[in-house]
Amino acid sequence: MSPxxxxxxPTYQTTPEEDTPVCLSIQLSRATVKALHRRLxxxxxxxxxxxxxxxxxxxxxxxxxVPGAVWCERWGRRPACL
Length: 82
Hints:
mainly alpha
């Protein structure tokens, strides 16, 4: 395994075109949404608390498109968690 190397200064040059903000949008298929809900039910049946806590957050964020500020307040998380 090679050692990790951390550079203190970036070694690349960005062009003005690359220095623009990017907005990403994720769309889920119906099958994926159903799979999320099914996984939540399974986790609840098996008392898998990790998935029981996380799955509703993903459903809120990705399926219902809850705004970040509302999401953070509702789930008690910092914006960096998004």
